[in-house]
Here is the input.
Amino acid sequence: MVGILAHSNTPSIVEFGWLIPAFPLFGSAILLAYGRRLGRASGPIATIMMIASFVVSAITFFQIVGRSAASRVYTETLYSFIRAGNFDVKVDYRIDPLSIVMLLVVTGVGSLIHLYSIGYMKGDPREGRYFSYLNLFAFSMLVLVLANNFLMMYVGWELVGLCSYLLIGFWFEKRENASAAKKAFITNRVGDFSFAIGLFLIFANLGSLDFDQVFTSAPLLAGGTATVIALLLFGGAAGKSAQIPLYVWLPDAMAGPTPVSALIHAATMVTAGVYMVARTHVFFDLSSTAGTVVAGVGVATALLAGVIAIAQDDIKRVLAYSTVSQLGFMFIGVGVGAYTAGIFHLVTHAFFKALLFLGAGSVMHAMSQRTDITKMGGLAKKIPWTMFTFVLGWLAISGFPGTAGFFSKDQILEGAYHAHQDVIWILGLIGAGLTGFYMTRLVWLTFFGKSRDEEGLHPHESPPSMVFPLVVLGVAAIIGGFLINSTPEDGRLARFLAPVVSSQSAGFVEGEASGAVSAEGSDEERPLSAGALSGLATAAGLGGVALAFAMYSGGFDWRRRRENPGVVWRTVRNKFYVDEVYQFMFTSLGRLGATTLAFVVDARWIDGFVNGIGSVTGRLAASGRRVQTGLVRSYALSLLGGGIILVGFLFARAVR
Amino acid sequence: MIQPAQYLALAAMLFAVGVAGVLIRKNALVIFMSIELMLNAVNLTLVTFSKMQGNLDGQVLAFFVMVVAAAEVVVGLAIIVSIFRRKGSASVDEFKVLKW
Here is the structure.
């Protein structure tokens, strides 16, 4: 609908939007072919491709911002992808405020992480391949984000899954890494399956996969169908964005190189689910059930992962569970209808979580790839830049007033509160407290106190190409939130995204009457003011920080406590045994089922049936072949008998 | 004047003799001769019917049968000779390897 309007504008860089994914694709192809020969040069090549892509995205952004709100949507068709009957899918791209925000995050943070990788991957024998995969990932993510129909989105969705698999298992020599890659891929497939069925339902009910057409006609759907479609789409999102019950792959995905964890498993790919829900918000607006499910799953995941993060000792694992938890917060936002807040948290999270992961990578670099924080401590003086930037990330994620995380988390909780989801709001506050707690524990054990290193390592600061991205992201983590969206109603991001994510623009108004949960429009009835909400959220976060600080810097002897752990601590440390339960439910029972099918149903029943037919035929033939005596005269006798019968028959007929 | 029915009766008798010969006798040569007897019984009926109908179709067919029978005799006798050389006997009951 809006897309057609934009075509009348004068030619501009927007029409070269296809360049954005083309750069990394080109880089990936080059590196795949010549990566081995290029060696050390492959990193800079890949980085330049990403920066080029970022520059095009940034110019596009400024051109789009310069337009009136109504003409900020631009779509362009490249060619027809599949055409069969009334199924017509085109390869096209869509540049609108929502995709622009994602473009900037993917290419911006992506560029920094590419740059960081040059230093981090130095000396790896497969550097060319690494950067090729990294560029391929950037391309895939851009396809996902730029898609203008569900199928293209699905293509990008699958491609990022593939890249994630390739990069988690990048050091496939170690068996665990290869298994982690497979686990991630298979768990994702469960979600993708649900997404695919969602697409089938959309096409079956609405006859198109094109975003504009689907969103325009979606309000005509029966309420139940909309709910089912929304839930199926969310199933896909839960797989990609690591929500209950499909979150188990993300912590294991830390087997990949740390910049990969930062780029794919913190900043970009795992947020694809949030993006997808925001993009397809029409369905979620139509069904309050689906919205509540999304928010409920989000808050449950935020809490569960937050609790697990407290008891982990591996620096990357803590951050991984933290990511799962923060993704939960984003889903609270999009679930209660505060789409802007969800996307906003996505952006700020990309800043500070990429920063924290890269910081963790820098710590590992300094500590010769050690990840156990119980053996660190006192690193602040040895690696001051890493410590300084890591602390910035810690401030942001814990929600210190003024930092990026403060604004975005506030707005999500405020959205939940205004959507009358009080339970989710209160649980979200607890989640914010948990965030403060586990992050403080992580920072304190890593950088402060006395050194607990028993191996006599000599930590050293990382090279400038690694520190520079840390500093940039550190600055973004502190001031980014204030600059982007200081208030939920008229922050810059809110105004920019409003035409895309607000219910009205999607071509229906009456949808809200059918039970849509909306963040806006119900402020008056709620007793707490915005200031009070913000105060409560901040207090929760800082409360967690203060508690952890008091425990770990003060008298709490966590090491002695560890020697005789209680049941609770052991359960949390073992991640509530979720992996073991899944192992039992799916692997063991699945194997039992497969064994039964293979050796009983198949070997006995099906093979028995087929073999039975064979042996019956054989036995029939064994007795039947006795007729063939070999005696010519007996054959002649049969011949005669046959002749007589035939003649007799003809004769009888003629007489009658 | 001999009636056509008498010719037909003769032909039927000849055919029956031929059938009996094929079924009863063991010697391949005799069986062969019995077959010839049946063929000629058929020839006789053909000629008889030809005469009764008043056209020559039956007679033409009778000549055909004779020609084909001559050719068949050539092949058949050759096979019998070959069997005799191999087995030392011309009994068809001896020769029953083509069985189950």
About this structure: The interface with chain A takes residues 19, 22-23, 26, 92-93, 95-100 of chain B (CB under 8 Å). Residues 57-87 of chain B form the longest helix (31 residues).
